[in-house]
Amino acid sequence: MNELVPKSAGEDDGAVSVRNDLEEQSPRDEKKRRFVAWLRVLLMVTVPVLVLAFGLQQLVKSHGLGSLTQCVSSNFAKKSESSNDDSWRLDTNKNYTMDVDYWLRQTKPRERHYYMNVTTFVEESPDGIRRNLTVVNGQYPGPLLEANAGDTLFIHVDNQMEHEPVTIHCHGLFFNNNNSFHDGAAYINQCPIPPKANYTYKIELDDRQYGTYWYHSHFGAQYADGLFGPLVIHSSEEYRAMNSSYDKDIVVLVNDYYHDMASNYLPDYLGPANENTEPDPDNGLIQGQNRFDYVASTYLVPNGGNSSDVSYAPVNVSVIDLDPNSTYRLRLINAGFFLTFEFEIDSHDLEIVEADGTLVTPITVDSLAVSLAERYSFILKPRDDKKDLKNYWMQARFNQFCAKVENTNFNPDVRAIVSYSKHEDPSDLQVPDSRWQYGGGDVVCNEFDQSLLHTANVTSVPRTANGSTLPDVRFDVDVSFLIKANQLTRGYLNDQTFENYKNGSTMYQLAFAADNNTIKNLDVKDLLTNNDHQYMLNINERGTIVDIVINNYDDGNHPFHLHGHKFWVLAIGKTGFFDQKYYTDDSGVMNFENPVLRDTVNIPGFGWGVLRFVADSPGVWPFHCHIGWHMESGLMMQFNILQDEYSNWDNYPLKWYQQCQYWQNQL
Ligand SMILES: [Cu+2]
Q1: Which of these, 39, 100, 37, lies nearest to 65 by C-alpha position?
Q2: What share of the chain is helix, strand, coil (3-state, %, to 5)?
Q3: Percent of the chain beyond pLDDT 70?
Q4: CB distance 635 to 479 below 8 Å
Q5: How far apart are CA 521 and CA 527, in angstroms?
Q6: What 3 state SS string does 601-636 have?
Q7: C-alpha dihedral sign at 63, 335, 217, 222
Q8: Cα 558 to ligand 1 centre (Å)
Q9: Which residues pair with 569 in a beta bridge?
Q10: What digits encode the pLDDT tens for the residues 418-435?
């Protein structure tokens, strides 16, 4: 039986302490469940009446700018009866433009509530080809979440899907030492939100964290289908540190894009005799939109579909409106599933000022390569005189050499128009041909050279107590894809491939059965454990300086991401292997002064990298390649940090606990 608290039965239904063991919880739970059952009946009677009475009017609370509140569930019901109706398309010119002054005026921390109704939305067409999407609030792409540093962010997720669970992960957030159970990684630090259930993430934002982030589903391959969007944390401190160098602020969201649901590609990809040949995208999008030149005779219908089922109507590129008299900060996000892209805007220089929420010493480039899940802010510097500014191509050129893309549908030339001319009809815009020579046709698969990025205003990376350049713990991890039993190819970190934990989530077990679980009991002090397919690096001492030394034995590049932390990119090697002598010699291979501090970085094919982080945030944190296909293939592990602390917390949300019980009862 479903033991979950029904929708709307109370947002914050109390907290659970792990000091009580599971048995001691039961009577309290039982009492609560009975109350909840009563509430459920009450709601079943009253809600339909209310809904009728209000004529489907949305009762959405508005806080802050409330930008999510305009677009709620009444969009879902309508379907193909209105093929010209593109209200499903998020108005990114409006939604992704931030009000710089508003956020600077906010001086006191406050709550920011956002409401996400998750549905599988039937057949809309960001690039002209109709397909199913899984979306937030009936729109694509996902809406912007905004807060100030120090605010408390509430994300109220209502999973309205009939059959699919969901989670929402806020990529790059710290979770402030005390609430990593809200990180949203399915089966790791959360049990997924079941179909037709809801969940509220309460994230107390660190007052030292600001910049450009994003959110996405962390359940299976779901985010490829549309469950993602930008997340920006404003800060007057950051603004001052940037010398107030902009007056307009816009998110540019870029993603590679498939013409079918990710789940339809997975059986082939993960099936026998497929040696890690990833599904290739069909297109890429900027602000959720791009052209696709459909030719019926040559179009490859994905996954053996029927060509007579293909529905297409031409779509234009998106137009980003700019004011010639303003200075813009653009926040660029690679929210894709697979590929790196090279980004440029004709006749503009890009002054990079931020990488993954870290201010960097400004550096000016014509273009830059952005790996999956990375973010950059830059100040936009037009080369033409202000009075001559008109229309220009913005381009995100997907690097198909990296991935050996063979899909003949694939359009790697992803564009939008940057327009300074107030226009009526986008199709009338005159845009000069681009003269950009994409990478000079470079067949190398590297991202932007990380050694050119320097964290602003620092003089040293964290060091151990004795001041040495060596870490407290060095963790070497080898990356490979191996064919093992039944001709199945899987991703391996050292010799371990990740599989979803079957009995709730690992954090649930490690916290609530700290002395009696099948993964890692509290008294086990091993640095590495591997039980129940849960490969873990265990750090038990707060403040431990950890270096992750990654050697990539695979020919493909892998953008690695660590949840809940930022790491210092001490070195990236394009060839060969890491050598211990780099710690102490004068080769300058490693930077211990001012390397970039970020949460995602690309490890080149047959290359290596050394990443340093300080283990100071208790939780079970995924460390993984962000290529969605590779995650599904097992290129993921967990960093179990300060289990003795989080297994004593008393603030686990009741619903977090109950949703794990729900899944256990399904076993
Ligand atoms: Cu990968």
Answers
A1: 100
A2: 20, 35, 45
A3: 86
A4: yes
A5: 13
A6: EEECCCCEEEEEEEECCCEEEEEEECCHHHHHCCCE
A7: positive
A8: 4
A9: 611
A10: 999 876 676 778 898 998
Cis geometry, peptide bond prior to residue 141 (ω within 30 degrees of 0): yes
Token pair of 102 as six digits: 């508003």
Element (H, E) at 195: none
Strand partners, 609: 550, 572
- Domain edges within the chain: 74-151+205-448, 473-666
> pLDDT tens digits for 88-129?
999 999 999 999 999 999 989 999 999 999 999 877 899 999
The answer to whether the CB of 158 falls within 8 A of the CB of 138 is no
| 458 CA from centroid of ligand 1 (Å) | 31
What pLDDT was estimated at residue 66?
32
pLDDT higher for 229 or 486? Answer: 229
Q: For domain 74-151+205-448, give the CATH number.
A: 2.60.40.420
45 vs 56: CA distance, rounded Å: 16
Q: Which segments of 423-557 are extended strands (E)?
A: 473-483, 489-493, 528-531, 534-539, 544-552
pLDDT, tens digit, for every residue of 273-293? Answer: 888 889 999 999 999 999 999
Dihedral angle of Cα 280, 282, 288, 293, to the nearest 10 degrees? 170
Q: How far does residue 276's CA lie from ligand 1's centre (Å)?
A: 10
Class of domain 473-666 as given by CATH: mainly beta
CA of 574 relative to ligand 1 center, distance in Å: 16
Neighbours of 426 (CB within 10 A): 14
Residues with CB under 5 A from ligand 1 (ion): 558, 625, 627, 630
State both tokens at 402.
């990296």
Q: How far is the CA of 156 from the centre of ligand 1 (A)?
A: 31
Three-state secondary structure call for residue 386: helix
pLDDT of residue 194: 97
